[in-house]
Records
---
Amino acid sequence: MLGPVILAASRSDRMRRLISAAPVTRQVVDRFIPGETVDDIVPVVEELTGKGLELTMDVVGEDITTPEQAAAARDAYLALIDRLRALDLGERVEMSVKLSMFGQALPGGHEPALANVRPVVEAAAGIGTTVTLDAEDHTTLDSMFAIHDELRKDFPQTGCVIQAYLFRTEADARRLAASGSRVRLVKGAYKEPAEVAYQQKREIDKAYVRILRTLMDGEGYPMVGSHDPRLISIAQELARKAGRKLDEYEFQMLYGIRGDEHLRLAAEGHRMRVYTAYGTDWYGYFMRRLAEKPANLRFFARSMISKG
């Protein structure tokens, strides 16, 4: 399987330099990351919301190694929120953040991450929207959930992400489903050992359905993060059986993947939110998109050959 190999490459400085230097890379990256600056991304926000879609915005970057970098990440989100204020889109445009960007991996990083992300959550609330804490590798999750719990004391709309491939997630889902929180369920996009995570697609899919049933039957707000047509159909059926209205859950998909499906779901009355990333530190995000789906890798390889 190529996925684990690509995920390993996402941590390689040598591969980063090689891929970044390829002339065709920027063209392919633009499929998934439609800009590097706030000025680039505002027209994208206006275009997508004009089509009836909602967004969650991610300023790409991770593996922060200094307090100054963590502060810069905080300030990048605050600048985004300041620009979004004038668009008056309320909850149609939210934020997604990785706590590794806010200093979680620094010595004693839990407290700096909380201190840096809190102003972003507060500023988001000030323009009528919210923040979702993205899940990263399994070693960071206890800290992420603790920060999520702390933020929800003042900002109960703060969301979090859970990953179906981790063994622990069914228990996490049961706790979160009873709390009234906003929960995005994804399959998972990090290289995790067999001791903590399912390794086979079939097992991951089965876990996804079990966890999604828990979320749909619970008191929270499920966010279905998947491009898989079968899982999307199952989600609709589970929502129907749970008696949920169309505005009591939502679908989330990545910018650049299955754009026609985004529009189809929105046209049917579903809440459809597009995960839209931007920024200059795109490498790790880009590599995970390649690892998640063989079609993405084929698209990149074809582009490399045709432009070579």
---
Amino acid sequence: MTAPTKPPHTGSAVPSPAVGPGSDGSPLHAPVIDWFDEHARDLPWRRPEAGAWGVMVSEFMLQQTPVSRVLPVYEQWLARWPRPADLAAEAPGEAVRAWGRLGYPRRALRLHGAAAAITERHGGDVPSDHAQLLALPGIGEYTAAAVASFAYGRRHAVLDTNVRRVFARAVTGAQYPPNATTAAERRLARELLPPDEPTAARWAAASMELGALVCTAKNESCHRCPIAAQCAWRLAGKPAHDGPPRRGQTYAGTDRQVRGRLLAVLREAHGPVPQTALDRVWHEPIQRARALDGLVADGLVEPLADGRYRLPQG
């Protein structure tokens, strides 16, 4: 089926939503997938040549980081390390260095660890089996489902922030999903999955893109939404969020900012750096020391016996 690209905006009564909790979601599938076929962004990890490794790299990088910031780092990463074995052969500190300013640099170490495990356990090929993906270091439920679905066309519920927001609004009538993913959300996502693998994989990508481009956290574009006529939240008059305050992300003055500045010095250095070079990046010594200790504890910085520091070598 297809849905009108522009829903009616009249003051008359509106019909009940075509889907709801317990629905199989079929009224949503065709409109969202048709919209995706026409409006999906041409992203490098969606191209056939990206392969499963390209998909995995993108999923690590895109966690809590916008596409615009990921694109240049992704291209450089794949040019340098086109296969997991290429990354595994490097010191983990090189992954941290190449990660640049994407933020949350522990993701770089986790991706390096996953590459090493793929090389050792799977002959250098990213596995297609969900359980094998989940067994890799640094791979959680979301990433395992995303790689299996996007790279191999498998049938899995892929629940990122964008998908959760689409489901919250279209099906449950809430403006935002809970702060943390719930069992009810996972159950709903499974209920909404199309029964066949190719359609389920397409649905996973399409619903995610809808949340990224149209059903956004702020200034949603309901007039462009292919399922606006069925959206429970819109049909209810867009009730305001009723739940715990949504977590905001602060950066300025936090330990995260200090950690970022310390890592920047180490990334740009060609060898170990003395404590004095790190002391210059932040004025408050207690916070600076705490941030540095945290980087060491996370394996992102390696202290040497002579009091210098470097990125991890092994």
---
Amino acid sequence: MSDSEHPISAAARTRDRIDTTKPHSARFWNYFVGGKDHYEVDRQIGDEIKEIFPGLVDVAVTSRQFLGRAVSHLAGEAGVRQFLDIGTGLPTADNTHEVAQRVAPDARIVYVDNDPIVLAHANALLTSTPEGRTTYLDADMYAPEAVLQAAADTLDLSRPVALMILNTLGHVADHDEARDLVRRLMAGLPSGSHLVISDSTATSEGMIAASAAYNASGAVPYYVRSIGEIAAFFDGLDLLDPGIVQVPEWRPDPRTATDPATAAVDAYCGVGRKP
């Protein structure tokens, strides 16, 4: 009998891939947004970075809020019914499928990550309305064509798809390589598809110091970029208003608007449509 027929064996192999001796970006971010899936090592570096740059907590929270507004707009006003979420991260409240299917119950969502931590929690992401569908791929964004091929089992790639890459591209050290990965993913999607990106930016001394401290911790490095480098991911696409802006400024919801004191976060975002 193959291992694929033994869920317990597969779960054990997944656990064996998890390193709890070093900080981890998904757990670290989960700590900052108030989740419960983190270890002492993640809390230690999180607390250290809060001392260096308390504003990173605001980046985490407002970036999550941006996801909700962007998905709500795309599933609602833009009529998108398919979402490809790469760099899923750990499940929290209002994940992409929950937001999308609240607006459009027939929405289909594919989550993509190659992280054993996320894989271990993937079942929490696999809920869906009866009309829609949610799936999870244990796959690598460094293989865009393979990701698209696997996603095609759930999504109709002849129809518009919203490609979500939130707080993930900073893990790609080389900006040109990151741009190429985005280009190749969008190349496999039809006209009318959308690209949604948010990432931390090197727009303050505090954020730069926080990034350096995180990268020195032994975690997989995360590189903050300039606003211009974030904008370059959208080359060839039609940017939706208001363009490339700090995450709280992208179509803010008056009911949940960010406190002006924390609105100037070191994270920028945008949503672009493929002509």
---
Amino acid sequence: MKLAKQSVTHVLISALLIINLLPLIIALSSSFRSIKNMTNPLLLFNEFTLESYRAAFTKMHFMQALTNSLVLTVASVVIVVIFTAMAAYPIARLNSRISKFLYIFFLSGLVVPSQMVIIPIVQTIQGLHIPSSQYTPILMFITCSIPFSSFLYTGFIKSSIPIEVEESALIDGAGLLRRFWQIVFPLLIPVTVSVVITQGVWIWNDYFFNMIFISKAAQSPLPLAMLGFMGDQTNPTAWNVLFAACFLCALPLLVIFAFLQKFFIGGLTVGSVKG
């Protein structure tokens, strides 16, 4: 009986895995077809050519769009890591009403969709005379990343970094900033990697804020650059090229995640259990 239940469970898991992977496999198969080969997409890997990838690379100005995405993502993530780690440190260490209020205040940002308040945000930015450029979305990326990042950092500091380490440094005469940067921050590597991946993936793939604040094609990151592949009634979408562009955009993230996945899983689980 137990063996039968395990067999059924394995079959169901395998079926769910196939269902989830099938669209990805179809897209990958189509991306290796030539531009004119738009036959039945269920005929998997009936052709292998890089023609669609070459067309996607050229049409979307991949290197320029990649540079724009890197600037937006790296700048936003670095600022988020520095400021949320510094903010989470006193929140985790101080047992006061102010620290508890700030913790709840940051977490409240998780329940407010930024898309719902985009109109007053745009009006505020215009009222402050902040110019609309390729760097304007960084403000929104930082703001929207703070709640979840502070939650991870606070939980990790409380559960994984013993206060005795800091007390020893205090006895040796280390000041607050020195204790944080030289002792606490190096111990935050697992949760920092989690923040970098979770927020970096979202910022890298974001379309909404980039569409709102970026208007020049030369400043477009990868998600906006892919708009050029969307067709219309007179110019149908070349799905092979679009799928190739999707995989080109995802490739940098896959490479980064392959190197950081060990830290990511450890930091995410430890930092979210207690907090």
